[in-house]
Amino acid sequence: MKTYDLSAALRVYVILDPEKLREDTSLMEVAQQVLQAGARVIQLRNKRDSARTTITQARQLVTLCEQYDALFIMNDRVDLALAAHAHGVHVGPEDMPVDLVKEIAPDLIVGASSGSVESALDNVQRGADYLGVGAIFEARQSKPDASAPRGLQVVRDIREALGSAFPFVGIGGITRDNARSVVDAGADGVAMIRAITAQADPAHEVGVLIHALDD
């Protein structure tokens, strides 16, 4: 199995959700645009379509990601991740526990959502390969089940608890204007949905974001 530098890959983590795209575009169009611009992780979050449709989308995205040496992550569904030959799966607090995912799918990269030091340590102990930490800023307008904003302090606290080497990405209400503050607080990168995929030029947004993070 190929190994990836997760800390580097997580710099720009794009979440694709069919319900969050502009009506004049498609998943594959947006995926290609952001990959060409430098994103190296794409997650598919599809709670609208059937399993069959989602697997078809996921397999297409796996092929595209591999052309750019990028990672494809399936949201929530371990079964769909395996069926699509995804590189990994990301699970939330109400999904399958990380240790059980690792038991049934040992070759998958497993990410887990954490909103506190306690949950971060628990997910790492269970075998998570990376974390999504948040919600950092207000995100409930685009993700109704997001937590109340936890602020940058949770990023600092989790970085201190996990040490410098463990990879994690900040998520929740992140924009080109506040992304640098999340990385400065200790995250390896930022995960974004609408702030990239719902914009008129997603590739431009990724380019601006990379510049902001690396400046």
Give the key terms:
single chain; 215 residues; alpha/beta; TIM Barrel; 8-stranded parallel barrel; 10 helices; 17% strand; globular
Characterize the main sheet: 8 strands, parallel, barrel
Shape: globular
Question: What topology, given as strand order, has the largest sheet?
Answer: 1-2-3-4-5-6-7-8
Percent helix range: 40-55%
Which CATH class is shown? Alpha Beta
Q: Give the full name of the CATH homologous superfamily.
A: Aldolase class I
Fraction of residues in β-strands: 15-25%
In DSSP terms (H or I, runs of 4 or more residues), the helix count works out at 10
How many strands in all? 8
| Poorly predicted segments | none
Given helix and strand content, the structural type is: alpha/beta
Arithmetic mean pLDDT: 95
What is the CATH topology? TIM Barrel
Give the SSE order as H and E letters.
HEHEHEHEHEHEHEHEHH
Number of domains: 1
CATH architecture: Alpha-Beta Barrel
Q: N- to C-terminal separation?
A: 34 Å
Give the C-alpha Rg.
Answer: 16 Å
